[in-house]
Amino acid sequence: MRMVFRWFGEGNDSVPLKYIRQIPGVEGIVWALHDMPPGEVWPMDKIEKVKQQADEYGLNIDVVESVNVHEDIKLGLPTRDYYIENYKKTIENVAKVGVKVICYNFMPVFDWLRTDLYKELEDGSTALYYEDSKIRDINPMELVEKIAKNPQFSMPGWEPERLEDLSKLFEAYSNVTEEDLWHNLQYFLEEIIPVAEKHDIKMAIHPDDPPWSVFGLPRIITNKENISRFLKLVDSPYNGLTLCSGSLGANPTNNVAEMVREFAGRIHFAHIRNVKIFKHGDFIETSHRTSDGSLDICDIVKAYHDIGFTGYVRPDHGRHIWDEECRPGYGLYDRALGVMYLWGIWDALEQG
Ligand SMILES: [Mn+2]
């Protein structure tokens, strides 16, 4: 496995590249142009700037997360063709600096979803928390106020401009069924996968987080059956997965290690983190350690080891520990501990 670490860009992340290079075994950053609105072409000068910054610290920029998909594509509107053409140009542009994998998702309106960004764990650290009853009771607008208006940083997937016209967006989705979403995803893939093939970039869809419908919006990348269906939409190795253990694992019926084995060869990027699941679909993110959460991270890493995984891995979210001031879920300390835990398991497996 090749370890990488998410970085939000100069002036947009509390963690400097100088520190990232000091985490053992981290060879590159997972990056994006976070100031580019979905649907716009990423310009070469901005892409090259990130490359230069990473080069300075000997870090690669092989993995992009995310190139966001414009809502019109997910909605299947006539304007989608324009945004798909732009998406292709962005693929072409990032290929010029050597990008190998693009992570993206196909979740309507909301990217990931939580009800509390700073829920306290027993040890006094805080972490991202999802409480199902709150999602049922809350108006989506209130949630946006809470999440998107985070005072320190704009939250990835929750960019204010993206959610500006939330009620209109909800209205637009009111007639979109899961089957429509499948259809729109297929249309998108049939257009972009040949371009990805041409430029040798593996497309890696991120599962829905959490892996079930929220606010009545359709969600489809949620379980093993649906992922199998997704991979067949365009049966090419370039149409692959970002297998996120924490997202899929929030549903206890999902067996992540089993999915790793089943989808080996189509997994280009692994997000590994633990979650502790409570009743009623509530869950909290925990340290990566198996005993701290509900997922057997040892078994998941073993599955990757068994399949001879040579793709990219990143520790996913971390808790907020040691009074670190950071983006919710994206501090240095707990993610660095996560990296070391993953390497610890991997190295032990290597020794047999
Ligand atoms: Mn993830």
Automatic annotation (TrEMBL):
Q: Does the keyword Phosphoprotein apply?
A: no
Question: SUPFAM superfamilies from the xrefs?
Answer: Xylose isomerase-like
Q: Name one Pfam family in it.
A: UxuA
Q: Which UniProt keywords apply?
A: Iron, Lyase, Manganese
Entry keyword DNA-binding: no
Give the range the annotation lists for the signal sequence: none
Listed cofactors: Fe(2+); Mn(2+)
Enzyme Commission number(s) from the entry:
4.2.1.8
Reactions that this protein is recorded to catalyse: D-mannonate = 2-dehydro-3-deoxy-D-gluconate + H2O
Q: Which GO terms describe its molecular function?
A: mannonate dehydratase activity
What NCBIfam families does this protein's entry cite?
A: PRK03906.1, uxuA
- Family, per the entry? Belongs to the mannonate dehydratase family.
Question: Per its database record, what is this protein's job?
Answer: Catalyzes the dehydration of D-mannonate.
Q: What is this protein called?
A: Mannonate dehydratase
Q: Which organism is it from?
A: Caldalkalibacillus uzonensis
Lineage of producing organism? Bacteria, Bacillati, Bacillota, Bacilli, Bacillales
